[in-house]
Design goal:
The protein is α+β, with helices and mostly antiparallel strands. The chain is built from 3 helices and 9 strands; from the N terminus they run βαβββββββαβα.
Length: 194
Amino acid sequence: MAVNGGFDLEKTWGSYSINTKANIGPNDGKKYSLNDKIFIKNSEIKNSRKISYNYSTDTTIRIIKGTNFDYFSNDAIDKLFKEDFLITNLVDRMGIRLKGPKLDNIANTNIKSEGLVRGVIQVPADGNPIIMLSDHGTVGGYPKIGVIISADLDLIGQLTPGTKINFKEVSLEEAQNIFKAYTDETNRYLNECN
């Protein structure tokens, strides 16, 4: 969220960001909660105009197959693409834990640690997927069933606990075309703001 003039916050180490795991940043490094007050700096609005933004309420998240896709049973793959998953309260900048049908791993629930990318979906032994976000670790040892396409990363980052999502597989070529359209739309929107 952004407001004209900005928020009246104190910088910590040159940043307004909050790291809740380390309790660093404004608000003593804690999340803002109900009834907390956030102050806005005084600002004189000189130019104002309304820009229409179509916020998506779509909860279908498009993915491509992960490097360990074949570690999962046909039943697990069926569940991945046909059933809903719930975003739990375990959400932060590192990742999102989901709850839903157990995704059975038929090969190995732990693998040698490999590099991770933002949007990768790892499945630990309990069968509940974890989506890695911006502050994810650099390596991980859970099998990777899929990767969220770049065009849907902003959407997944905005969904709140309690939201039900479902996954849809797309090809790499489709993902590239969707990202190009997404980038064009974002640039068109940003150009309207200037």
